[in-house]
Amino acid sequence: xxxxxxxxxxxxxxxxxxxxxxxxxxxxxxxxxxxxxxxxxxxxxxxxxxxxxxxxxxxxxxxxxxxxxxxxxxxxxxxxxxxxxxxxxxxxxxxxxxxxxxxxxxxxxxxxxxxxxxxxxxxxxxxxxxxxxxxxxxxxxxxxxxxxxxxxxxxxxxxxxxxxxxxxxxxxxxxxxxxxxxx
Length: 183
Hints:
Elements: E1 2-3, E2 6-7, H1 8-24, H2 28-42, H3 49-52, E3 70-74, E4 82-84, E5 89-93, E6 105-106, E7 121-126, E8 129-134, E9 141-143, E10 146-148, E11 153-155, E12 161-164, E13 167-173, H4 175-180
Parallel strand pairs: 5-6
Antiparallel strand pairs: 1-2, 3-4, 3-13, 5-7, 7-8, 8-11, 9-10, 9-12, 12-13
Helix pairs in contact: 1-2
């Protein structure tokens, strides 16, 4: 495999180091998604096997259709954090030690006042479009400072500012914007 004059040893090492970096920082889902993205860009199908052993299996199956990269970037946090949107439906919420609440994106670390509900909102991908729905949260969901009525979906655009309770994130979609956010 060749990519802009780089051989597969260098590319493999870069991908492995990036995945290790993400996993060491508690971003296993991001590491899995990064692997899928890198594989789709740099490897032919017969070259996938050397990297497969390094990959953890995601909790849910990834999207069956062609992947369109999108992610949420937490705003105003001391640590830079982002969450890849790699499933057709992803629930955003916070961890609750007393209940086994299912969520895909846990904002507990960025929500000291617990203004994010356990199952606060859901992002759904349909084709090339993404939609946000408030799941009946206590403190509301906002898109670019506009309140989102519970149980009503609203289409998202790249660059939208989303607010879950008091936690603010930026929604990015498309390869160029998502990858530029990594720098």
